[in-house]
Design goal:
Elements lengths: L1 H13 L5 H22 L3 H14 L5 H27 L3 H28 L2 H30 L1
Helix pairs in contact: 1-4, 2-4, 2-6, 4-5
Length: about 150
Amino acid sequence: TVLRILFAVIVVQLLSIIGIKVVGGLLLLWVCWRMWQEIRAGATVEEMERQADEKGAEGSPKTLRTAMINIIVADATMSLDNVLAVAGAARDHMEMLIFGLVLSIALMAVTANYIARLLEKHFWLGYLGLLIIAYVAVDMIISGGGEIFAAITA
């Protein structure tokens, strides 16, 4: 939650920089690509845990420090992705950005397990979410490209 608020403050300031929407849109497209690979592969939590156990058995055991670093990096990445998606959808409307972040935090806190079960049961929902994020990313790239073009021709 703290990371999302911090990223929101930073992203709002960054979105005023010409061309940053293109960078954010490209980052979201990269996130979409990674999500698509995961959905397509059908990676479940059990599969990933099994793979981690197999790798752990072959290599050195994970330390608490390594696990904590992995969790912190994953949380920071997900927070940044979340803020970029909400900021891209909200555009220049600060109220919508705040509403979107509050809503996403509340939904994740209350419904995370339910959503995970729903996604396992109805895999197509993952593709629907991916399509929405891709739409926001492309929209950010197009509007950011327009800003760059306007700045160059001005």
